[in-house]
Write a structure and sequence with these properties.
Cytidine Deaminase, domain 2; six-stranded mixed beta sheet; globular; binds tetrahydrodeoxyuridine
């Protein structure tokens, strides 16, 4: 049986990552700047590479009715389905401004689980400290609810 190597909180040097990962990080950082976050002032950007080779982006969009806020990760997932229909996610990058880069919230993990296999890499990057971390999705979202 093929062994799946899981990455849990692995620190990376961005200078050493492959071009496609760098591109995904750049996209996440760029879309983060479009975040609409007048309430929290915390901006998040997400970029998703699909199996079809396309990259989709999302940023957090807040609402005066705070529960109506949509996170960056769900925004990117919505963009992918709206643009190319259902496809599997092959890599995810999330950029935020906190010194320790933020992981996706639990609602977003559940949402992403619909499209993302456990071995898929999730890159978290901070735009303030430059810290870059790698996880596998299964580490962030074990025992996901995906079927009923
Ligand atoms: N936020 C995201 O966009 N993604 C996450 O996974 C964590 C939280 C946003 C939602 C809200 O606009 C702000 O960060 C503060 O919670």
């Amino acid at each position: 049986m093929e062994e799946i190597v899981h990455f849990d909180n692995v620190m990376l040097d961005e200078a050493t990552v492959p071009y496609d990962v760098k591109n995904l990080l750049d996209t996440a950082r760029q879309v983060m700047l479009n975040a609409y976050a007048p309430f929290s002032h915390f901006r998040v950007g997400a970029a998703i590479l699909t199996e079809k080779g396309n990259v989709y982006r999302g940023c957090n969009v807040e609402n005066a009715s705070l529960g109506g806020t949509i996170c960056a990760e769900r925004g990117a997932a919505m963009a992918s389905v709206a643009s190319e229909g259902y496809s599997r996610f092959k890599a995810i990058a999330i950029a935020s401004e906190s010194e320790d880069p933020t992981p996706p919230c639990a609602i977003c993990r559940q949402f992403l689980a619909q499209f993302t296999d456990p071995e898929v890499p999730v890159y978290l990057v901070s735009t303030s400290s430059g810290i870059l971390k790698k996880f596998t999705f299964g580490v962030l979202m074990p025992y996901a609810f995906t079927d009923f």
